[in-house]
TrEMBL record:
GO terms for biological process: cell division; proteolysis. One of its GO terms (molecular function) is metalloendopeptidase activity. Its cofactor is Zn(2+). It is a multi-pass membrane protein. GO terms for cellular component: membrane. Keywords: Cell cycle, Cell division, Hydrolase, Membrane, Metalloprotease, Protease, Transmembrane, Transmembrane helix, Zinc. This is Intramembrane protease RasP/YluC, implicated in cell division based on FtsL cleavage. Residues 117-195 form the PDZ domain. It is found in: Membrane. The chain crosses the membrane at residues 6-28, 97-119, 279-299, 306-323, 329-347.
Amino acid sequence: MFSVTSAVTFIVVLAVLVGIHEFGHYIVARMCGIQVETFSLGFGPKIFSKKIGPTEYCISIIPLGGYVRMLGDDPNEEIPEEERARSFLSQPVRKKIAVVIAGPAFNLLMAFVIFWGVFMVGLPVLSPVVGEIQEDSAAKQAGLQAEDRVLSIEGKAITEWEEIRSTLQEKGGSTLNFVIERSGDQLALEITPKKKESTNVFGDPETLWLIGILPEGEQFTRRYNPMTAFILGAERTIDMTVLNVVGIMKMIQGKISSDNIGGPILIAQIAGQQASQGFLNILLFVAVLSINLGIINLFPIPILDGGHLVFFIIEGIIGRPLSIKKREIAQQVGLFLIVSLMVFAFYNDIMRFFVKPG
């Protein structure tokens, strides 16, 4: 259930995600002429520290996060006049917004780079070879048999299993001309998909068009040239980002159970499972988590990047920063919300893994 592999993989994955996120803040701050005083992976007591120039680079004992401390990022801090040009809060609003957005942006960029690379290296995909055929299905009635290879549908070449599913959905309930290969011979079949009402991952109704077949399981590696992989990587990043945002909104609306919220134990468990299935799976898991981390950090909750973003947008509108008192109250509310969410996620983890059902 929970192993040393899970724990080690979790720590490594989290360190990479946090490192990329904080590096985004760090590098954009440096580009904006802001002095970075501390770059830390983890919270709490430091277990490693090295100062290079004005910046202290450290690894801290609690691996559940990290931080970048910049000169003058505390509104209560007194900054000498000669150092204000390099302090964070003395910068124009546009620079402060750029620094805040950089962390989540680098998480999304990291996911894109991973997807891009994976599409170039190659992904295992299912061949369009029929395995099981359901009784009384459209495929059975049309004469489709196990081990038939689908070559085309309505003149469109089929090279992988997913293309069968997407073509059926695209064409709706129309009668479709299939060209298949059976024992070296090519045959033409007409198949009319059957309609099935279902629900998607968010519980919303959707219409499926099915012919009642399952894949045989044969796989091959599909690789793409750099430009095609670039486009596919961008599309996958956008799709996963939208999926995450919609999922979170559905959960806020109560359309998805909050029992789906998981904490570090669940993440570690999944990380261990992905590690056992190979490096490619770990990379894809990191990409998905990176998108999730970037989106969550953009939530308009004080102490998160999104909360700071709201503060600076308000500052840009009214022409002055919010008062220290208002910011402190907002930070306390934000801290309460985040701690409550973490406690709830940890509770879900315990119930999920340590309490046996029934």
